[in-house]
Amino acid sequence: MGAGNYEGFPWTEGVVPRRRVSTAFTILTVSKLTDVPKRILIGRALRSDKLGETLLPKRIALPVFASDPLSSVAYAPGEVLLVLSIAGVSAYHFSPWIAVAVVVLMFTVVASYRQNVRAYPSGGGDYEVANTNLGPKAGLTVASALLVDYVLTVAVSIASGVENLGSAIPFVVEHKTLCAIGAIVLLTLMNLRGVKESGKLFAVPTYLFVAGVFAMILWGAFRGLVLGETMHAPTSNYEIRPEQQGLAGFALVFLLLRAFSSGCAALTGVEAISNGVPAFRKPKSKNAATTLAAMGLLAVTMFCGIIGLAMATDVKMAENPAQDLIHNGTAVGAGFVQDPVISQVAAAVFGDGTFFFVLLAAATALVLFLAANTAYNGFPLLGSILAQDRYLPRQLHTRGDRLAFSNGIVLLAGAAILLVWIYGADSTRLIQLYIVGVFVSFTLSQTGMVRHWNRHLSTEKDPAQRRHMIRSRAINTFGAFFTGLVLVVVLATKFTHGAWVALLGMVIFFGTMTAIRKHYDRVAEEIAAADIPTDDTVRPSRVHSIVLVSKLHRPTLRALAYAKLVRSDQLEALSISVDPDETKALRDDWERRGIDIPLKILDSPYREVTRPVIEYVKSLRKDRPRDVISVYIPEYVVGHWYEHLLHNQSALRLKGRLLFTPGVMVTSVPYQLESSEAAKQRARRRADWNAPGSVRRGPVERRQHKESGTKS
């Protein structure tokens, strides 16, 4: 409890500890100092009622949510040729057939997800589909897979962009890890400014890249088919020393399957649109489905075009170019830099160093950087949904100043930076971890959609609706079978090449989220308010008391009862409205219980809690300068350090501000949870005395607790 110096009243007995004052002052000072640079970097805060203005039209949603699958055509064809090079140049003739298989898979997934966005437009995507139709464990598996894959999307896209840029700027290659981390930081700041603003920034380079690739495909086709010219890639006169001579039978099939699984990198990010449906303008589902179709058509056309031009220009790629790429009879050596397939094709079609070559190279590098934006939109939104379902810390559910899920964005950036640093920004090593999570979510999502249609068909009687559902079920059934088959192929061909790391990450996410959910469930059960009558009369005093209320649970009821015993002159409960649904639930519960303390609710359009409380308290002090304002803050106490990470520290920030407000006294009303070892030990040592927190136990529970302590 802190005491303020207010006119007309003497100092109360007791002194606020210097350490507590120092801590509060430090928090207040740091908050002030960081506010200005924060506004410069991410802009001014937006009101909650401005959320509708941040919704995206299709032309902006396409680069925001589809930049990953669109940009993956810059490296997916190269990954196919790299794997085939193990068997030498002779295996390259399989690449068109692999491209056809990837195209069929792409159209299957796009058609399947068009059903998803219509059936589940709330933004839960694969997680919601699996959780609703297959159960919580399946939903959590999908969520774990997606979270891992979003982190990998950022790491792979940024690393690939650095390598593409490094072919023109040697400094970038020499310091590619540092440059990759810098790019992630810059991208993070752009996303913290808000979805709509970042979408406008990303639209130009994405559309420039798409236009450049289509121009290259059309000009290359015109030169080859109409003019009859022969185009040569920079590596066309090179040879490849095969690592495995004369592959046949099962070994050849395994190689082709591995090349196919690498080419499936072109499908990464397809699911992001189904997760981002709430960010679209109305009609949301229709606009999302249209954007999916446009993304699929553009991606497969560019992928097939680049593969075709790579064959026509005789591009050579090797997994280990220093030893396996031969020029004039000798290996090229460690100093050779192997340019990506798209760069070699552009050099053959436009001419090395020409304006259009440089323009496409710059657009490719830039769009690969910005491809990570797909994850920056998918990861925070999924994290918010998981936090709402109590699988992740609740801080991930709240929007930041710019109405973006800022905590999720920062968490994603930190994980991606760690991964880039560990793997040295090497896209070839990182991409081996890729894809597994995507196809886990694809398969479970489509299986869930089959169950969804089966459930609705069992009750639907309208023939037209039934025909539509049967057609949709057939699409999702084929999607589940095909993506499940690809998942088996990916696991079989990539497990020893790094896919096990992605699986380990999924297991860690699954275990962590399960533990978090258990903690929140245990706390919710422990603090749940019973239907207890609250008919105590208010006792007179010269104090205006305010009890801060967020939800009506046991800690709140305890704080209300304590405040009434202090005999305040005026007592009221104060709640800050951040979420209208939660506010309505609080008001209804308050009225249902018949609590005789007036409940005052303050709107907070910027989702702040501290500022509205401070302003309200100051207004009371201004109207009644000789009164004492006593603020009661209900808090529950956890017993383990890691549990503090799962609960926000708004009470600490609020106390830090109130402590320096004249005429205000702050009282924390603690509620010890079962995990508090200190409370348990005090209860055992003093079994005859009601330990702090034991008020919440009934007479029977206290007696049992006493008996168990005696036995121990």
Question: What can you see in these coordinates?
Answer:
It is a single chain. This protein has 712 residues and is α/β, with parallel strands linked by helices. It folds into two domains: 160 residues, 3-Layer(aba) Sandwich (Rossmann fold); 476 residues, Amino acid/polyamine transporter I (Up-down Bundle). It is 62% helix and 6% strand. It contains 28 helices and eight strands. The chain has a five-stranded parallel β-sheet, with helices on both faces. A three-stranded antiparallel β-sheet has the order 1-2-3. β4, α22 and β5 form a beta-alpha-beta unit. α4 packs across α19 and α5 packs antiparallel against α6. The longest helix is centred in the N-terminal third of the chain and has 32 residues. The N terminus and C terminus are likely disordered.
Give a quick precis of the structure.
By secondary structure, the protein is of the alpha/beta class. It has helices at 18-42, 58-71, 76-84, 95-119, 125-134, 136-166, 170-174, 176-192, 195-226, 250-263, 272-275, 284-312, 321-324, 341-350, 355-371, 373-388, 406-422, 427-430, 436-457, 463-494, 499-527, 554-565, 580-593, 610-623, 641-644, 650-658, 677-685, 699-711; strands at 239-240, 325-327, 330-331, 543-548, 570-577, 599-603, 628-637, 664-672.
What is the CATH C-level name of the largest domain?
Mainly Alpha
Tell me the name of the CATH homologous superfamily of the largest domain. Amino acid/polyamine transporter I
Q: Tell me the domain tally.
A: 2
Low-confidence stretches: 1-34, 48-53, 535-541, 687-712
C-alpha Rg, in Å?
31 Å
The structure class reads alpha/beta
Could you please say which CATH topology of the largest domain applies here?
Amino acid/polyamine transporter I
CATH architectural group of the largest domain? Up-down Bundle
Shape: elongated
Number of helices: 28
Placed side by side, the strands forming the largest sheet appear as 6-5-4-7-8
